[in-house]
Design a protein that fits this description.
Elements (H helix, E strand, L loop, with lengths): L1 H32 L12 H16 L1
Length: 62
């Protein structure tokens, strides 16, 4: 059972890392391709904030 839990934890850590990398690449692409536009990202919506908090809480429980 512990092996399965460890495997799931590693999968979530990789997914979190992948999302961080995607965010970095998107921000870089926006800055590179639209240097004169307002490339600053919009604030998160209430739903996005809730989802982010739930994900962080879930990951911290692992």
């Amino acid at each position: 059972m512990q092996a399965e839990v460890d495997k799931l934890e590693l999968m979530f850590q990789k997914a979190d890392s992948d999302l961080d990398y995607i965010e970095y690449r998107l921000e870089d692409e926006i800055k590179t391709n639209h240097p004169y536009a307002a490339v600053e990202l919009l604030p998160l919506t209430k739903e996005e904030k809730t989802a982010a908090e739930q994900l962080k809480s879930f990951l911290s429980d692992l």
